Amino acid sequence: MLKIENLTATVGEAEEAKQIINGLTLEVPAGEVHAIMGPNGAGKSTLSYVLTGRSGYEVTGGSATLNGDDILEMDPEERAAKGMFLSFQYPVEIPGVPVMTFVRTAMNSQRKLRGEDEISAPDFIKKSREIAKQLKLDAEMLKRPVNVGFSGGEKKRLEIYQMMMLEPRFLILDETDSGLDIDALKTVAEGVNAMRSPERGMLVITHYQRLLDYIKPDKVHVLAAGRIVKTGGPDLAHRLEAEGYDGVLGEAV
Q: How far is CA 31 from the centre of its chain?
């Protein structure tokens, strides 16, 4: 599924570019959910941006493949069509563009790149209603401009709605629990867990154990100074919650 080898990357313009990812190696097989935890500035969000092709980030070494395809050579829309999906820590607002118009356009753009037929209006509406009901999204919300006037919890539920509509092959969730109350967290986690399958992989980026109580990871990785310094099972997240990062990072030195 996702395989990263000795990846290095910088952010910023030319002479002012700062190296954030420093020889990162990671593999997430199909059917597994891996969590990445780490202190502020460790490179967690940078990794998600590099993998999905956000501008302003430059890969300076190493490789990243999805099912054997070199994603670093692809434009962002090509990566999306191949099945990459990023749930943002801070979802952006898109004034003037209704949610359903945005999502149907995204679905059909990806289908076109894959050589598939567009989804019909009746099929789209049926699928949208089913997923919105599951996520407790009001139908009127889907007629509003993307994220405009939405609460933090509504924005996160809307991203999970987009994810479930697009059915990506690999999910990157960048601090999806940020700003959520306990009810919204449970709803979002239920949507994520509904996407688990033997053909799909997930990378969950989080600061806190509480999200991993609802989205159970197969492995937990600790990221520090742009590289993976420790890997373990779900118990590693509990240890980080109890002890903080100092002990684990001290062991890695």
A: 16
